[in-house]
Amino acid sequence: MNPAVVLLSGGLDSATCLAIAREEGFAVHAISFRYGQRHQYELDRARRLADASGTLSHRIVDIDLAQFGGSALTDAAIDVPKSDSVDSIDEKIPVTYVPARNTVFLSLALALAETISSRDIFIGVNALDYSGYPDCRPEYIAAFEAMANLATKASVEQDRKLKIHTPLIDLTKAQIIERGLALGVDYSQTLSCYDPGDEGTPCGRCDACLLRSKGFAENGLTDPALG
After folding, report:
1. Of residues 110, 201, 126, the one with CA closest to residue 164
2. pTM for the whole thing?
3. How far apart are alpha carbons 51 and 152 in whole angstroms?
4. Could you read off the pLDDT of 23-33 as tens digits, one per residue?
5. Is 226 within 8 Å of 193 (Cβ atoms)?
6. 161-184: average pLDDT
7. Residue 61 pairs with which residues in a beta bridge?
8. Rounded distance, CA 155 to CA 158, Å?
9. What does the pLDDT look like over 96-149, one tens digit per residue?
């Protein structure tokens, strides 16, 4: 089994991505980040998912993007937008975008991949049912992969080229959920909410909650995290 690094946030998309990596036969090393986000509940979910899926290792890496702010997820002074309907979500890049977050995360995942002699990184970015983040687009992923293959000793001296896998990038949220259910993902153990209440209860009204609920509804289901 070839080793792969999977970015695991504890949310719906990353849980599905983890299941896909395992289904494809990779030996999974999960990596999560304590980056100064509004809450730690998602990291609790990441731990549970990693334990339940039998990952070979799970690292929680500490960085502090909150010292820069600029996002509702890293600055308590900026409110998380709430809506009553998915149709009300603004098409502009929202204030929940964290500057350079995926670039930082992928760089650290790249360091781990090179250290464990892995050619493969999985990340659950999505370019369809998402909140407009520029670092979730296919062209961004392609550019980062090209950079990574110029930047590492493994690629330069050993011709060990890195592949960034984005199995969800062209799927709707409903399709992601359908794929995950077929793989046995327990979505009750995931948390996507940007602004949960006590004990990680989803708010039900942020962009992430609304898109998630829409995906379950399109599969004829209710989000188990809300039950």
Report:
1. 110
2. 0.96
3. 30
4. 999 999 999 99
5. no
6. 97
7. 33
8. 6
9. 999 999 999 999 999 999 999 999 999 999 987 666 789 999 999 999 999 999
Residue-range definition of the domain harbouring residue 129: 3-226
- Tokens 């962009």, located at residue: 207
Evaluate whether 90 touches 81 at the Cβ level (below 8 Å): yes
At residue 141's C-alpha, the angle toward residues 216 and 193, to 5°, is: 35
Cα angle for residues 171, 192, 205 (degrees, 5° grid): 100
Beta partners for residue 4, in sequence order: 28, 120
Order across the sheet with 27-34: list the strands.
57-62, 27-34, 3-7, 120-122, 163-165
* Cβ pair 46, 17 in contact under 8 A: no
User: In the chain, how many domains are there?
Assistant: 1
Q: How far apart are CA 2 and CA 56, in angstroms?
A: 12
CATH classification of the domain holding 168: 3.40.50.620
What is the 3 state secondary structure string of the chain?
CCEEEEECCCCHHHHHHHHHHHHCCCEEEEEEEECCCCCCHHHHHHHHHHHHHCCCEEEEEECCHHHCCCCCCCCCCCCCCCCCCHHHCCCCCCCCCCCCHHHHHHHHHHHHHHHCCCCEEECCCCCCCCCCCHHHCHHHHHHHHHHHHHHCHHHHHCCCCCEEECCCCCCCHHHHHHHHHHCCCCHHHCCCCCCCCHHHCCCCCCHHHHHHHHHHHHCCCCCHHHC
